[in-house]
Amino acid sequence: MNHQLKGIKILLVDDEPNILQFLELGLQNEGFDVETAQDGFAAITVARQFQPHLAILDVMMPGMDGFEVCRMLKKTENIAVIMLTAKEEVEDRVKGLTLGADDYMVKPFSFEELLARIHARIRNHFPNLLGEVVIGPFRIDDRRKEISYDNRVLELSPTEYELLSFLVINHGLVLSKSKILDKVWGYDFGGEENIVEVYIRSLRDKLSDKEHRLIRTLRGAGYRVDLP
To answer: Would you place residue 207 in the very low, low, confident or very high pLDDT band (cuts 50, 70, 90)?
Structure first.
């Protein structure tokens, strides 16, 4: 269990009991406080009492669907929302994001990817809650802008800090150069994509990752952090 996550509250809403139970146990084991609901009406009631930081909403539910739940939650609560759907329909995704959803995932998905997206949403929405995060051998202290690896504080420039944080928080996911540039350098960055390679090389040196086992290069796709 990651004790840094204790006190971060997540509401799970899905009409499939098996999915609900799987996600509830997994997130509780990670250290989150979790409440569940099996339909939209129950979700609104639970949210008012529980005051979650983040809601994970299934789109297709009887009665009130996930879109309507998202709209109502965003109207009344300070909450991050991740939508789940069994269909990879662009229209559904656009509708959810238009209603205020912060992220979108298509079933089936890996628990590790969901966890990475939860971290990213909480960090964006409630930065003070994740002031310090422990992920494998990494300790990221966002308040001090400091990262430790195997209990050793790394000497990082501000850009190196942002890049390594982004890679580690999204560990297990392949991140393209363009996505890294958008997140770390900003969407209006006018320089060359090769700058990512330069900074990756510097991070590998500082992590003593000569064999690229920690920060892997996937040719034509991007980079992925694999935790030991």
So the answer is: very high
CATH annotation of 3-125: 3.40.50.2300
Domain 132-225 has CATH 2.60.120.260: no
Both tokens assigned to 77 = 């609560």
Per-residue b or e along 60-91, where b marks 16 or more CB atoms closer than 10 Å to that residue's CB? bbeebebbbbbbbbbeebebbbbbbbeeeeee
Instruction: Look at residues 174, 154, 185, 150 and name the one whose alpha carbon lies nearest to residue 222.
Output: 174
Q: 0.85 cut: is pTM over it?
A: no
Q: Considering only CA atoms, which of 9, 49, 12, 50 is closest in space to residue 33?
A: 9
Q: What is the pLDDT of residues 25-49, one digit of tens each?
A: 999 988 899 999 999 999 999 999 9
